[in-house]
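Hi everyone,

Forwarding the result from last night's run.
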Amino acid sequence: MAASRNAEMAPPVRRARLPAVAVLAAALMAAVRLGGSRLGFVAWPAHTTAPALRSSAGSGGFGGSLESRSPGVGMAASIRDSEGNKVKDPKTFDLTDASQIVGTHTAEFKKRPFGVLAYAPSTTGKGAYIVKMNEKSRYPGDPQGQAWTAGARSGYAIKTVAGQDVSSWEFWDIMDIIDDKILDNSAGKFQTDSKGAMGNKPAELPLTVEFAELKMDEDAQAADDTDRVYVNRDDPRYRDLPPDATLVEYKIPPAPATYTSKTVEDIRSYVASLPEPVGYVGPRYAGPASINKDFIDQMLANFRQGKLIPMKDAYKMAIDAFDILKQEKTLGRVAVPEGKKVTVVGDLHGQLYDFSHMLSLAGYPSPDNTFVFNGDFVDRGPWSVEVMFTLLAFKLWHPKNVFMNRGNHESELANHFYGFFGEIEAKYEKKMCELFGEVFRATPLAHVLNNEVFVVHGGIPGPDPRIWWKGMDNQVGFQGRVIQ
């Protein structure tokens, strides 16, 4: 009986609410049709179909939840590009109107992505034009420089794809067929997973795309010209540049008069509170003046027996070395007087016994025996801590005759992965890793010997891949580079 009574009572409740909802909906529809222009968009005629509702996760060319499926609707104020970003200055164009086209440019793409970072639709929701792209090719054959190298430029609209005229297509239908996406967030993720109504499958590669250069109004052309930097190809400095080269002037900002590291200053205070070592037999560090040949000899002898310098002394040596390195220039210059020599040492990689043997042949650094240690002091080898403190001792002993270049292993990423930080934590404590991160950041990158020889290790972490060689693809994912 209870179920029967509930069933009988439910319909009157629904009937009481539905008319109110219907009236409200009708009022809203009327307000939109009569006052559409005041709301910032064109109202659709009464006989046309209203725009289809779409979730914000796949909002297509328009912001919010409306995606136009009829030709009369345009919401320029909320146009979003293929990356989901709001378009600052949306364009209104129609490629079926030949008078809007200045010229066409054809590009053939052999792999995805093409080098276009974002596309956007016309304010009508149709068509697709380039709003952001890679404006250079990083190396010969760079897939992400394909569009630029082929002559495509920001503002160009897609006219045909594989010979198919897409001028009148909806934006996301065009996006589906070109499928110009990067889905690996290590390279920069853009474009959503939205699909157009046509359900297009990605076109096969190689893919020919015809772009249309749109006619600009005079004001926009003037603004565009003021932003351009033209390269004078008659200038002998630029005569050998490839056709797709982009010249960018970069001025290195002046270095501050002084530099302080909060990390180092905090550790400096921490070290003062550390206790003195108990039962230690060996050299003690009491500032740069305390280092001499006997200090180095005893320290290396202890290292070979598996004995470390005390933690407090280790911290002090690293901090004092940081204070010296931070005052040196990124590009240092080494003078080698006539009759004197300079020894350039390559990757030591934590190999204490190799290093010790090399010193037995080349001697210790001195005013008559200059050394340049060219990066990769640590990682891989099991004595990275010992090698590093030997280098710091040399630098503190003869700062004008010992020079250090930062290599690709003088970075936190490499040190975590290849062992140096783990070795520090095992032999001292984890906190010391923070200090060495600062020491490496303060280390110069290169030195020039007598203004004649350029010494650099290179490979400091940066865009990946950093160089190109035949057979190398640029597809970088969680599994690293892909070799083809």
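The first strand starts at residue 52 and ends at 53.

Cheers,
N.
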